[in-house]
Amino acid sequence: xxxxxxxxxxxxxxxxxxxxxxxxxxxxxxxxxxxxxxxxxxxxxxxxxxxxxxxxxxxxxxxxxxxxxxxxxxxxxxxxxxxxxxxxxxxxxxxxxxxxxxxxxxxxxxxxxxxxxxxxxxxxxxxxxxxxxxxxxxxxxxxxxxxxxxxxxxxxxxxxxxxxxxxxxxxxxxxxxxxxxxxxxxxxxxxxxxxxxxxxxxxxxxxxxxxxxxxxxxxxxxxxxxxxxxxxxxxxxxxxxxxxxxxxxxxxxxxxxxxxxxxxxxxxxxxxxxxxxxxxxxxxxxxxxxxxxxxxxxxxxxxxxxxxxxxxxxxxxxxxxxxxxxxxxxxxxx
Length: 334
Ligand code: SF4
Fold this sequence. Notes:
Layout: E1 2-4, H1 6-16, E2 21-24, H2 30-44, E3 48-50, H3 63-69, E4 73-77, E5 85-86, E6 90-93, E7 95-97, H4 102-111, E8 119-124, H5 132-141, E9 145-147, H6 166-169, E10 177-181, H7 185-195, E11 199-203, E12 208-211, H8 213-230, E13 235-241, H9 249-261, E14 265-271, H10 276-279, E15 287-290, H11 295-299, E16 306-307, H12 309-320
Parallel strand pairs: 2-3, 2-4, 4-6, 8-9, 8-10, 10-11, 13-14, 13-15, 15-16
Antiparallel strand pairs: 1-7, 5-6, 11-12
């Protein structure tokens, strides 16, 4: 079950005495966030706003909404990062899942012996970071050497985002395999792509573990194919995402310059939510490059090619006749 660190929210409000606050977080915990809002309203009798827009990551905090609402504090819940505050309005609040990994970790540690792995690395997303130490001890007990990669930037040790992979990239030459804790193909497949190592997802809910490398290969192939599909585009739309942590206008202008040199006609587009539906009115554009979240194109369906920044760089290399296929085997997909 997911738990929000409500104690932190309560103690912050008691100490700072804001006139109003806002809460937001990923869709999966919006129900819990609403229940927290009820408790805060009852206790402090101040306006408490639940922001219903998406909050996909620490790049997508809805600060603009908090400013429009005029709140003193925006509590962003569930996107644990290595910093407690972002700017002077946002306070990051942890949400963690108390599911126990012991059973699946023991099974996996015994069964993976057949594969002759001796050195493994553990990795996870924010809500399971607290489980890492216990799983590490289980694998060590079964004779494995366990490496937990160092965090960098916003990442804690052993943590990955869907676009940022320092703890795994930096350890890929030291270990035989990666074990991702949690039920997330989204995260584990990208670990497999970045490291090109056997990667297993440990699912504590179904007490199962599965190798994710085939799914990762399909995702990577799809990403490469999209680059080839964009090759013949005459007009390319470069989309600048308007979410505060994804805004990359300079990168967009740099790609525009390089693609114009390669003979492409460019249309600059700005939008907040980048979906297939929102792109339909851009009928005269043959392919898009979005410089916001790199997972938008790889993990969603679009009728026309939609490239991320690494894919755009690969396209430019392809147009110049340079080697271009390993563009996702990098630390940060931006
Ligand atoms: S994968 Fe996308 S939503 Fe997640 S942190 Fe990166 S840019 Fe943000």
